[in-house]
Amino acid sequence: MTGPVNVHGQRTSRSNCGLCPCGLLPAHAALGHGAGPRSAKARLSFEGSSLVGSNDSATGKGKWQESVTRLPRDAESRVFVTGDLSLDHVITGLELGSVNRVHCIKTTPGGSAFNAALAFKQEGFSPIVFGAVGDDAAGESILNELKHHNIGQLVTRDKHRPTAECHILYFQERDELRTIYYEANNANSYDSTSLHYALERADLDPGDYLFSSLHILDQMDRDIAACRPFLKELASAQGRLIIDLVPHGLYNFCDKDSLTGLLPDSTWLMIGEFRTFFNLIHGSSQPPPPMPTRRQCKTIAKTLRSRYFSCRYGAGNIGYEILFSQDLHRQERMPTQHDTGFAQLRPEQKRGFGDLLTAKAVRTLSELGALDSSVEGMEDLS
Questions:
Q1: What is the 3-state secondary structure (H, E, C) of the chain?
Q2: Cα–Cα distance measured from residue 307 to residue 265, given in angstroms and rounded to the nearest whole number
Q3: For the stretch 26-48, what's the b/e string if a residue is b when 16 or more beta carbons lie within 10 angstroms of its beta carbon?
Q4: Alpha-carbon torsion 336, 365, 121, 23, what sign?
Q5: Contact 146/114 with Cβ under 8 angstroms?
Q6: Left, alpha or beta for 8 (phi > 0: left; psi -120 to 50: alpha)?
Q7: Which residues contact 354 (CB under 8 A, 6 or more apart)?
Q8: Which string of b and e fits 209-230 if b means at least 16 CB within 10 Å?
Q9: % the chain with pLDDT above 70
Q10: CA 367 to CA 355: how far, in whole Å?
Q11: For labeling, which of 7, 12, 227, 312 is most exposed (least CB within 10 Å)?
Q12: Is 376 exposed, middle or buried (0-12, 13-18, 19+ CB in 10 A)?
């Protein structure tokens, strides 16, 4: 296998270890062994500072660039990021129910994987993105932006489906009305076979992290059984698994039993809005309280399997955050809350804010090792 350049701009060497010509899948492995209806018949290879492959979903044949064996390791912990990649078209300041004359549409790379990777990079981690884009200008734009930020890429190029393009609408002083729409038939894919070999290339250590939102449920047409191979593959890797409970309204089609049956027992950090946790556990027949009590946090920790939890509520359902551990019942006092600063942000600053909050939470938990319920400068809940 060869690779022109690695993520540090260094030339890589060739080695022959009995893999297929692309260097990623064993020669006997068949294409298309995926997790469900959105599985991609794709393999991966390095291109520049990334692991990039092309995908012919019609024939099952891939056209591959050169590849390397392992991503070179930085000093910082790696975060293996899965999720959607999209080109986002953002419009702010709209008036609901009116004809809006728009002066500026901001177009920028985005999607759950891109936004999370950028947030982890800003917080000092070394992220690696696993995902898929189309073989088009939008996909090229996303890959170039990842390269610009020196973010590792394990990305397939789909020749038959376009890069996802997402339209995000913000309305004046109405955060809860934010509207997002995108074309369903896009290149985003959650293929467990490609994931398996990408994880081998990522070469994660036990002190590294894996991040996944549950947008996979949307991509798999909310077929929970189809999502299991992908999440099982993630859980089998070395590293600490982080699960983001989005879309926030997943309780409309998923209950706590379905969720716990889907998610691995090894989850290290589970992130969610308080209303998401509450409705998953109690159902959506009663409205959640405006803020969680100690008892409700204990119920979350007892019901859902994770070592740590990030529970968010308040303005935009993210104005405050509580971090607490699974053994909350051993703590005499309520875990501490902190103001995230969301309420003071301008509309254009709110995009990706949740991901940045996640990266900061991971940094905090990594540095503390265990939560202290009396952290100075934070306010205790009653």
A1: CCCCCCCCCCCCCCCCCCECCCCCCECCCCCCCCCCCCCCCCCCCEECCEEEEEECCCCCCCCCCCCCCCCCCCCCCEEEEECCCEEEEEEEEECCCCCCCCCCCEEEEECHHHHHHHHHHHCCCEEEEEEEEECCHHHHHHHHHHHHCCCEEEEEEECCCCCEEEEEEEECCEEEEEEEEECCCCCCCCCHHHHHHHHHHHCCCCCCEEEEECCHHHHCCCCHHHHHHHHHHHHHCCCEEEEECCCCCHHHCCCHHHHHHHCCCCEEEEEEEHHHHHHHHHCCCCCCCCCCCHHHHHHHHHHCCCCEEEEEECHHHCCEEEEEECCHHHCCCCCEEEECCHHHCCHHHHCCHHHHHHHHHHHHHHHHCCCCCCCCCCEECC
A2: 9
A3: eeeeebeebbbebbbbbbbbbbb
A4: negative
A5: yes
A6: alpha
A7: 244, 312, 318
A8: bbbbbbbbbbbbeeebebbbbb
A9: 74
A10: 18
A11: 12
A12: exposed
Of 293, 288, 296, 271, residue with least CA distance to 353: 271
- In tens, the pLDDT along 165-188 reads 999 898 987 777 888 888 889 999
Q: Check if the beta carbon of residue 86 is closer than 8 Å to that of residue 141.
A: no
The tokens describing 212, both together, are: 């996944």
Strand order in the sheet with 106-110: 106-110, 86-94, 164-171, 174-182
Measured over the CA atoms of residue 113, residue 118, residue 122 and residue 125, the dihedral's sign is: positive
C-alpha separations of 70 from 14, 37, 198, 249 in Å: 12, 29, 10, 38
Q: Which of 95-99, 181-185, 273-277, 374-378 has the lowest mean pLDDT?
A: 374-378
154's tokens: 């394990």
Structure tokens belonging to residue 104: 């500026």
- Average predicted confidence (pLDDT) for the chain: 80
Side-chain-side CA neighbours of residue 7 (13 Å)? 25
Token duo for residue 162: 């376009």
Nearest CA among 57, 215, 225, 68 for reference residue 152 = 68
